[in-house]
Amino acid sequence: GGSASGKSYGLLQIPATKYIIDAEGGTLPYQDRFPFQGPEIVTDDPFFVRDDIARVMANPGDVTLIGIDPLTTIWNQLVDIADKEVRDRKKHDLSQFQQALDIGSWGPIKRIWRGLIADLRRASVPVIVTCREKIDVTTGARDPDCEKNIRFEFDTVLRTELVGDKRITYCDRDRWGKIPTGSSTFLPWNEVVTNAFREWWGHTGEPM
Question: Which pLDDT score is estimated for 103?
């Protein structure tokens, strides 16, 4: 979702025992309002994130949800690493570097990203990641501001949008079949997730 669409706030409201990696500082204003575990620092370091997820998975304790908010900044950090490497080696100009990104042929950096996604997919508890939104100026298409194939990596993809004082949630896909693909609702995205998957976190009462 875009700015102020409720990504961080919604993640903190999921009724789970949460371990959240804050990669941008979005959870900081709410630390006194919502209980959650996580690193003591805000970090978008992809190596730290992978190590931290592995540590939690080795001993999850009472953790029932891993969150990353947002995945966008971790991806951008990898792009910056690749950019610096290319410029330091002086093997490509900027246009060639961008072409390398577009076709996904940037070797070790891409493998780090694929490793992170694989770690998330292997997690033994549910994982929710947020992403910023980017809008194509030509087509008006709204996509996650992240690696171009990111929407295909996760079972459920929701988009949240702030319209006036209302937050609208759209379902781009749900492989579980619990949220109709293409549907929209004025419920915040976290309520959509909680209602659809409430058995994961022991929420067995009436839908929110």
Answer: 46
